[in-house]
């Protein structure tokens, strides 16, 4: 897998009419990815995440003793969703807030196979998986590339147990996949 980091502000308009179209084409390509097969659900995940953060960014967001979700937790969750867009066969998570000020993503294949990650902020990630018959994993890690790959493996494991393998979200064949992060 290749990763491409683009800062739209840094793309030089270059010379000529074609060069001036590059920033627009990059944005269109990423937008197409978000709305073409793999991303229509992903776009709704981004919207759900944004709405959740807006609702829970202040203490006592549900009227009782709940803590605010820190902006850094929202950023970490958004970054994870952005990376997840470019993976095949990864279903969309359920997105919710924890009372203690964190964002939780949850994947449930059935009553015996589930996995969740919790974004506390400052690149700290909690995880918990249960795959039946005493097979469990849980803990806290720093969010980095190795952790990301481990989490993806556990999500896939959740759906591979007992034949719950998700189908590809894209009908296109893949030789190599790319991650494109756009900064506007």
Topology:
Layout: E1 2-7, H1 16-20, H2 22-35, H3 40-56, H4 71-84, E2 94-98, E3 102-110, E4 113-121, E5 124-130, E6 136-142, H5 145-160, E7 178-183
Parallel strand pairs: 1-7
Antiparallel strand pairs: 2-3, 3-4, 4-5, 5-6
Helix pairs in contact: 3-4
Account of the protein in words:
There is one protein chain. The protein is of the alpha+beta class. It has one domain. 36% of the residues lie in helices and 27% in strands. Helix 3 packs antiparallel against helix 4.
Amino- and carboxy-terminal Cα gap: 24 Å
Question: H/E order of the elements?
Answer: EHHHHEEEEEHE
Strand fraction: 25-35%
Average of per-residue pLDDT values: 75
Low-confidence stretches: 1-11, 30-40, 165-184
Q: Helix/strand/pairing class, anyone?
A: alpha+beta
Tell how many strands the DSSP assignment holds: 7
Amount of helix: 25-40%
What's the number of domains?
Answer: 1
Number of helices: 5
| Overall shape | globular
Q: In what order do the strands lie side by side in the largest sheet?
A: 2-3-4-5-6
Q: Please outline the major beta sheet.
A: 5 strands, antiparallel
Radius of gyration: 18 Å
| Oligomeric category | single chain
In a few lines, what is going on in this structure?
This protein is α+β, with helices and mostly antiparallel strands. 36% of the residues lie in helices and 27% in strands. The protein has one domain (2-183).
Throw out a few tags for this protein.
184 residues, alpha+beta, 7 strands, globular, disordered N terminus, disordered C terminus
